[in-house]
């Protein structure tokens, strides 16, 4: 058995920030999950639907691995990422850092993992790996999935090699702090402004505050859109609250990030942005509750209510980001 020493196998709410926390704590940098999410400019929004999809997708964050790239660039970290189509090379890419005493991050499809409780394909899942033996690998996943967990080497290989939406070719990565790390406190305002700029200047109407407005128009039709409304709508609501989002489609994480920032930076626009995201987090949970009720009851009135709230959320988040952009 090969195990990296001094690993704090702490599962958090979201998969990518959980993995980042493991890797960075091992390097000596311990930041809260909201701070990791915020410094990585992780908040976003996408409404996606196409003919090939069984049901629309609501996303509340940037693309998988973009958060990691953003955080590494902002803090001056050395991010070493590997991809390969070779199963042999894929294993070597994770075994070598662990043999050298360093944990490694993996992007994979959680469907194949032995411990995963809900068997759904999601190719943007991220875990930290800190050990292996002849049969199993030792991982850190979200608290919801068990924190310190293990899965067979065979299942890990299938999860890493899976192809489909949001997958990567056996992606693995390590992070190294520089000898003289940048002050993460000094990177808070640039991270907030970059996130706000991207949210407000989204190139298509499916993204950012315009995406939320589009969702407000489309969600009221979801009973007609769904093949199995009693299953599809509650599942969508569950993913918004429990699918590694930290609640409220990542808005609770961003609210808590902004709250931490107000304790470090005295700025009226920052405090106002925090108040608006605190309001938005409550409303996103209301939306998910109404979507679930609509699926369970078949009553489209719940979706009409959700649509109204989404129109309000588009305005609230736009106002918040306009304030935060001025920091």
UniProtKB/TrEMBL annotation:
Span of domain DUF4872: 155-324
InterPro entries xref list: BtrH_N, DUF4872
Pfam families assigned: BtrH_N, DUF4872
Residue span, Butirosin biosynthesis protein H N-terminal domain: 14-142
Name by which UniProt lists this protein: DUF4872 domain-containing protein
């Amino acid at each position: 058995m090969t195990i990296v020493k001094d690993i704090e196998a702490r599962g958090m709410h979201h998969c990518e920030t959980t993995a980042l926390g493991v890797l960075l704590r091992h390097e000596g940098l311990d930041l809260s999950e909201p701070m990791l999410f915020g410094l990585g400019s992780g908040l976003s929004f996408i409404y996606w639907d196409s003919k090939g999809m069984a049901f629309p997708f609501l996303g509340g964050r940037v693309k998988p691995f973009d958060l990691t790239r953003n955080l590494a660039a902002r803090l001056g970290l050395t991010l070493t990422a590997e991809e390969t189509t070779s199963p042999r090379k894929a294993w070597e890419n994770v075994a070598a850092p662990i043999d050298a005493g360093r944990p490694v991050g993996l992007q994979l499809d959680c469907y194949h993992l032995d411990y995963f409780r809900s068997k759904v394909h999601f190719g943007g899942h991220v875990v930290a790996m800190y050990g292996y033996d002849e049969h199993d690998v030792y991982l850190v996943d979200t608290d919801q999935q068990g924190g310190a967990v293990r899965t067979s080497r065979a299942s890990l290989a299938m999860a890493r090699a899976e192809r489909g939406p949001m997958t990567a070719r056996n992606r693995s990565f390590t992070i190294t702090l520089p000898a003289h790390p940048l002050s993460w406190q000094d990177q808070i305002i640039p991270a907030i402004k970059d996130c706000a700029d991207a949210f407000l200047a989204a190139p298509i109407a499916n993204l950012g505050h315009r995406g939320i407005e589009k969702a407000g128009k489309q969600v009221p039709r979801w009973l007609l859109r769904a093949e199995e409304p009693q299953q599809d709508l509650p599942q969508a609501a569950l993913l918004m609250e429990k699918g590694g989002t930290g609640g409220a489609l990542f808005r609770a994480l961003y609210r808590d990030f902004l709250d931490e920032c107000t304790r470090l930076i005295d700025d009226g626009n920052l405090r106002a942005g925090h108040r608006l995201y605190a309001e938005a987090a409550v409303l996103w949970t209301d939306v998910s509750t109404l979507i679930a009720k609509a699926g369970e009851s078949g009553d489209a009135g719940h979706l009409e209510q959700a649509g109204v709230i989404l129109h309000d959320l588009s305005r609230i988040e736009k106002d918040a980001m306009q304030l935060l952009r001025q920091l």
